[in-house]
Amino acid sequence: MTSLTWTGPALDRARVRRLLQDYGVYAALAVLFVVAVGLDTSFVQMSNIRVQLFQVAPTLLVALGMALVIGTEGIDLSVGAVIALAASVVPLYVGYGMLPALAVSLLLGAVSGAVGGAMVALARIQPIVATLSLMIGVRGLAEIVNGNSAKPVTQSGLLDLGSQSVAGIPEMAWIAGICALLTGLLVRRTTFGRQLVAIGDNRQASRLSGLPVRRVLITVYVISGVLSALAGVLIVGHGAEADPANQGLNMELNAITAVVVGGTPLSGGRVRVLGTVAGALFMQLITAVLTQHNVHTSYTQIVEAAIICFAVYASQERGTR
Amino acid sequence: MVQQDLDPRGDSVLEVSGVHKSFAGVHALRDVDFALRPAEVHALIGENGAGKSTLIKVITGVYRPDSGTVRLDGRERDFRNPLEAQAAGISTIYQEVNLVPLMSVARNLFLGREPRRFGLVDVGRMNREAAEVLGRYGVDVDVTRPLRTLGLGAQQMVALARAVQIDARVVIMDEPTSSLEPREVETLFSVIRRLKEQGIAVVYVSHRLDELYAICDRVTVMRDGEVVHTGEIAQLERLRLISLMLGREMATVRDKGTTAFDTDRHERQTGRPVLSAEGLTVRHRLHDVSLDIHPGEVVGLGGLLGAGRSETAKAIVGALGTDAGSVEIEGKPLHRRSPAAAIRAGVVMLAEDRKAEGIIPNLSVRENISLAALPRLSRAGVVSQAKQDEVVRLFMERLRIKASGPDQKVSDLSGGNQQKVLLARWLCLNPKVLLLDEPTRGIDVGAKAEVQSIIDELAADGLGVLLISSDLEELIEGSDRVVILKDGHVVGNLDGEDVSEDGLLDALATAPPLSPDDPDLPEQPGPATGPENPGGTPRAGSDPAAAPVKEKQR
Amino acid sequence: MTSAVLPPPATAKARAPRATLGERIASQVQRRGALAVLVLVVAIASATSSTFPTWSNISSILGNNAFVWLLALGMTFVIMTGGIDLSVGSMYALGGVLGAYGSTHGTWLAVLLPLAVGAAWGTVQGLLVAKAGMAPFIVTLVGLLGLRGLLQAVTDEGATTYLVPQHSAFRHLGSGVWTPVLITAAFFVLGIVLLTRTRFGHTLTAMGGNENAAVLLGLPVARTKVTVYLLSGTLAAAAGALGGARLGSGVTTIGIGYELTAIASVVIGGTLLTGGSGSVGGTAAGVLLLAVIHNLIDHYFSQYGSAFTDTVNGGFLAAVVLLQTLLSRKQQLE
């Protein structure tokens, strides 16, 4: 039976909804920025902007990986734990220099991602459960590796990475920006990116079309793991200490929020990289504005929750399911 | 049950008059009158988009008409949702069994109206009553087992029993036989006859003309949102019925047949087959199936539902794991068995279920067409836009895909155009062998004809084609050769003049019973014949009735 | 086309195939696996350890954990419908704080306030899932965040700690071993009856199995969904309040990650995460199994601290889900 759908000028609400889905996050970001400046002109001072960029960079890195995973109709709850794991190994290898420490961290991120990806792609476990078990297990592992207390990190290269600026913009933000650009190109221009989106939209059809479904899925989780590990190293560099018990906590929520606020539907088949960047910035700025105006963290948290709720509601495609 | 009026010419139990319904300014129903008498089976027929489903949805309260009335027993009713219609005595049985596979048969039958004692469900009574009710419909099963362990036919019976239980006055059946085997169809018919005896009116929607003539009393034909004919079905000649549905002259239908295939057979190239499958075996489903496809020929795969036709195609391309057997492409064996490997070797399959296994709904026509060819359109993993555009434009023109442009979302296209997009996805890979699983199911007449002529052209270009179709005429007129499957075994091969409706039915009817499926056979496998014997053996340790269920569940 | 031509026997009977041995074993393992492993683990632990089978050890396993198991009970219902409730950990903490706050005004308030808030929040979540059609995962994630925020607001950003008055009758609800165990057991028995012997239970099972069908069959799908989240929220708040009664104060930092343990218990107990199949009894076996294993880890690997428990938890969950996926695939393929 054919479904009887006709699109006509009568469907203005649908158009509004689509516009909201596509451009809502940018409009919201712009409005928020104007309001923030209106409330306090010091908001546009470079020092403040730099602070915001420092804080948003790790979230953005994780959110980029999360956007890819969500694009395949998956979810990666292990990102926070991978940050902790990456942080936990930095003090062990930083004695050999920055690069070995970075390499080991990223490798562990990749391994964790590969395990999650294998559970999803090969054993066909639901992503939420597969990465949930990783989330619990990997953080435990990180704490075992590190021991109970936070360890200071003094390696200069790593500290520079977390605190220096190039052309007035923090190096962390440059890294996150470049990663966002690469992710955007990956999704739009490459075979892998298009296959990823197709698999997220209709996995069975993709498999029958000869797409390497398993390989793509595993790769996506590996990318997410590597980006999380990178975020973990940057967090260690910025804070000058490795504290796996506390670093990366709730990061999975922040990343999912950024992705969802950015307009990527949780149902897969679509990845909005620029939207994710805007979503991460928006969540960062709103927290900053509320905090700077002495709103209690409790209310900040409630506001954030409400925003996620609204974003998800708005991003739903009505009537298609 | 209602017994007051068994005269089929009595007053209408359900009367729809002057109903208009439009969506966003487009008319879906125009001044539709439809009357249903008590104790009649009324066929409702028309092409896709003719307005059948809209009419049914108006009757069952899914839609509310813009104007016009729906009367039940002479009283005007305005159902706001399907529940209200159900409560008033209008039950609907949908094409797919809409029950809960993991729950027990009895629970399914009584869901929502379980017998209770002291506020708690009386499980004992529920199971007893369920067994009793189902027994009346010839379904003899352990009602405490999960529904999914039943055959599809039995599941459909449970759905039917459930629908009728709710004191139905009117039962609407929307393509109820599309997943049934012949003997299950016959059981369904006997149930329908019993419903008639009880004075219940049945609206029967089906595309299978044979069934309509076998069971229906009257027929209403719809086209473009209007009723174009209502009357006794016995007085309506088959060709006339088709021409009414299509809005074409009878003469054209008679001369050209109902399909768009060229009546000439293709010139077969002899010599090495382009595809050769040997001894494909999938536990419980396929048994030693072998077939060859030569370049330039269309090989039909005949058989009934559950015979293993789709499974054969899927086994060839590696979408279904095989326990034994090999596939050779132009003499070279296909080692790794996966759709990707088959595609690389030049074998592609148009899957049966367009929605679940074909289109990528949210992507554009462009992306859907180029999906499988992406690696070929890329350099170093980066997709070349120019090459992509070229391929897409070429195939949109060649297959006459009607879309607002390559960037239109594929799910916005009609079924026929979606099918053409999928064909384009495969053809742009320049395949050697094309496996087509029900290529024209569920698409409108125009697109059907186009797809059929495309198949002809492709074979003429030298492709090897395997055609699976439940449409007997399509299979007969489209194929040069037909391989017949029954219960997973090859039971016959028709060639040349033998490729005819009679030939096919003969082969199917004369093939010895192959499985304990047959109710007259004992459950144990028969003696003497080995499982290798393609002539027919009860399959050792198989569970036949589950096979069609799995086919659906995939 | 072919159907009417072949003369089939008119009295054909549809007969169900027998379940194969593999299918039956798989289904049994899935349903009773947790119980079997529980018995095995307890037997081995009792045989090899002198401290495990002691009364003090067993009573600490039961008494300290019993209330938290109620989260798993509520979660069972939610997961049976194919949903998930990530907010229960936060609700547990909020329930404890509200219970402690209420107890300063009387025992009744201590009981009713958390229940009312839990029910109200659960209803909101249920409405968002059922009426607005939002993914349960995201709605309850919002609940996880929002409730923590609410918790901070109620306690002046964690600065205020409410204590249950020394002589409040509320304290009795959580004291000792038997009171918590009996309360929890009573809830579980009610849960079993609710799931297997009421229309509500049948409806929620049907929804999890095939939601479309449930709608077309005319079942009250939306209402049942709302009720399920209401139930989960209320149970979590009640568990929190009882936990607060046991501890004697409302602890704001408690309950983090409890939702994960609850989900793990439910899954280990054999309930399918996709919904439509599962049992409260299985969940009971699941929570007991996890509690025993944690007890053993605490005992033998205490030098590694709670981090080791987390690692084992994660690994265990992964193993069970892996097994479950393989088993259910076997059932489908057989």
TrEMBL record, chain A:
Keyword flag DNA-binding: no
Q: What is the name of this protein?
A: ABC transporter permease
Alphabetized, the UniProt keywords read:
Cell membrane, Membrane, Transmembrane, Transmembrane helix
Topological category with respect to the lipid bilayer: Multi-pass membrane protein
- Tell me where in or outside the cell this protein is found: Cell membrane
Q: Is Transmembrane found in the keyword set?
A: yes
Q: Which CDD domains match?
A: TM_PBP1_transp_AraH_like
Transmembrane parts of this sequence: 23-43, 49-70, 77-96, 102-122, 167-187, 216-236, 273-292
Q: Give the organism, scientific name.
A: Actinacidiphila acidipaludis
Please provide an example of a Pfam family that matches this protein in its UniProt record: BPD_transp_2
InterPro entries this protein is in? Answer: ABC_transp_permease (IPR001851)
From TrEMBL, chain B:
The Swiss-Prot or TrEMBL record annotates one GO molecular function as:
ATP binding
InterPro entries from the entry? AAA+_ATPase (IPR003593), ABC_carbohydrate_import_ATPase (IPR050107), ABC_transporter-like_ATP-bd (IPR003439), ABC_transporter-like_CS (IPR017871), P-loop_NTPase (IPR027417)
Enumerate the spans annotated as ABC transporter domain: 14-249, 253-512
Instruction: List the Pfam families hit by this protein, alphabetically.
Output: ABC_tran
Provide this UniProt record's keywords sorted from A to Z: ATP-binding, Nucleotide-binding, Repeat, Transport
Q: Where is the segment annotated Disordered?
A: 506-554
Name by which UniProt lists this protein: ATP-binding cassette domain-containing protein
Automatic annotation (TrEMBL), chain C:
Q: How does it sit in the membrane?
A: Multi-pass membrane protein
- Which keywords does this Swiss-Prot/TrEMBL entry list? Cell membrane, Membrane, Transmembrane, Transmembrane helix
* Superkingdom of origin: Bacteria
- Location of this chain's protein in the cell: Cell membrane
Transmembrane region positions?
Answer: 34-55, 67-88, 137-155, 175-195, 226-245, 303-327
Q: Name a Pfam family for this protein.
A: BPD_transp_2
Q: Which InterPro entries match?
A: ABC_transp_permease (IPR001851)
State the protein's name. Answer: ABC transporter permease
Query: From what organism does this protein derive?
Result: Actinacidiphila acidipaludis
